[in-house]
Design goal:
Elements lengths: L1 H7 L22 H14 L5 E5 L3 H9 L3 E5 L3 H10 L7 E4 L13 E7 L10 H11 E10 L12 H8 L6 H15 L6 E3 L1 H8 L12 H17 L4 E3 L3 H9 L2 E7 L12 E6 L1
Parallel strand pairs: 1-2, 1-4, 2-3, 4-5
Antiparallel strand pairs: 5-9, 6-7, 8-9
Helix pairs in contact: 2-3, 7-9, 8-9
Amino acid sequence: MSEKFEKTAAPWKDIADMWNTYFTQPSRVSKDESNKYKEWLSNCTDSSKEILLLGVTPEIRESLAELKCNVTCIDINKEMISAMDSVLKIKNPNEKILNENWINNSLSDNSFDVVIGDAVLPNVSWEDREKLLFEVKRVLKPNGLFITRIFCVPREKPFKNVDELLKKFSTREPNYQSALEFVLELQILAYDPKDHLGTFSKPKKMLEEIRGENGFDFDSDNLNKILEMVWDFWCVKFVEKVYTYAYRDEEETEYENYFEIDEIYEAIDNDYSSITPMYILRMK
């Protein structure tokens, strides 16, 4: 388990200084998604209820702090915990941190009213996805809720090849949002349902084929700047990170093995909301 987790969830050591720069939508929760999390939580929580947060996502922790919820955050990576603590704008006195694994931990059965986690399934290996859902069900009280935003890949790829993608982004403004969207599109383009992996090594290989000794040299200066941002961070500093992606209908089927879908929401301020929808799931 530790080796699998190392490849999918551990390489987060340098995120603190980069969180507000490189990580934009849809990797981070949008304003509308943050508001929806808060709306859902305000409708199903109060000070008497126990909340489990998978990971240490700052936007969710801040919403829980405003609602004065009793929260346990669980994350295996000490560096990630420290990084996200440093960017929090609101501290929650009713929050405690558990430095343990999402799948193998000391949490008691039937101990939480709500489990919440943003894009958690991509951060475990493919063979452990069902184990994580079983663990969520194990710690939930009867009729408990699992609230999550998924991160999947579309069955129909938006671009047929790299050339189409380059043409599309040649007119985009060169900023970190464009860079993240470009590398996300590369991941989708390179996605193979046989291995389910969303890696940054595959996009790196694709860019190596069009990158010269002195960098990128296309007619569009904007495109060159976007590609350099992609290369410098996502293909160098973050290249070891690995995700596991499903198609949306596949992930919904995974959920329905343990839960009933109460509500689905697609954010209005996220251009990728069709592949990052939000769910309220209720124990069967």
